[in-house]
Design brief:
Blueprint lengths: L2 E4 L5 E2 L4 E7 L3 E11 L12 E11 L2 E7 L2 E4 L5 E5 L2 E2 L5 H5 L4 E3 L5 E2 L5 E7 L3 E8 L2 E6 L17
Antiparallel strand pairs: 1-14, 2-4, 3-4, 3-10, 4-5, 5-14, 6-9, 6-13, 7-8, 10-12, 11-12, 12-13
């Protein structure tokens, strides 16, 4: 691949990105992703604007999943009365690889946030139905891609705040 970004997760924007394939081994997690954006802080982006990456591969070396929790949810009717309430439920560690192997994950608005204990948290939506929070640590992150696919959508003048 032409571009390679190492340990620069904070130099990407993952809003509305999709994970097309995910694999998890004992030491590595690999995601095939689409629609991520390299910000101007990214060492591989020499453009004056954030740039869209249509397809990339994200690798996390020496990964350790701390938790995978299906989020709590509440469903209300049109009359604003509670119809259904679901409590947050942690997944069993032996199910992590199976859950992560599902395609169609979409990054939530939380994106990546480094926590004080050197772990990262990301919020996912699985095929538009279930939302979960994945918390994990790793020794190295690598994102590789072949080309930029134009400016990030939010760089368009109609989305810019004046």
């Amino acid at each position: 691949m032409k571009y390679k970004s190492i340990n620069e997760l904070d130099a990407f924007s993952f809003h509305d990105a999709e994970i097309n394939e995910a694999t998890l081994s004992e030491t590595e997690m690999i995601w095939s992703v689409s629609d991520i954006n390299a910000t101007t802080k990214n060492t591989q982006n020499d453009n004056s604007k954030d740039m869209r990456i249509e397809n990339a591969v994200m690798k996390f070396e020496n990964v350790s999943i701390k938790s995978l929790v299906f989020s709590a949810s509440k469903t209300y009717g049109p009359d604003k009365k509670l119809i259904k309430s679901v409590e947050a439920m942690p997944a069993e560690p032996e199910k992590y690889a199976e859950i992560l192997s599902k395609t169609g994950f979409i990054f939530g608005v939380d994106e990546y946030r480094q926590k004080p204990d050197n772990t990262y948290s990301v919020r996912f939506n699985i095929d538009g139905t279930e939302i979960y929070n994945l918390t994990f640590s790793f020794s190295k992150s690598i994102i590789e891609w072949d080309e930029f696919s134009g400016e990030a959508w939010y760089e368009h003048p109609r989305f810019k705040k004046t």
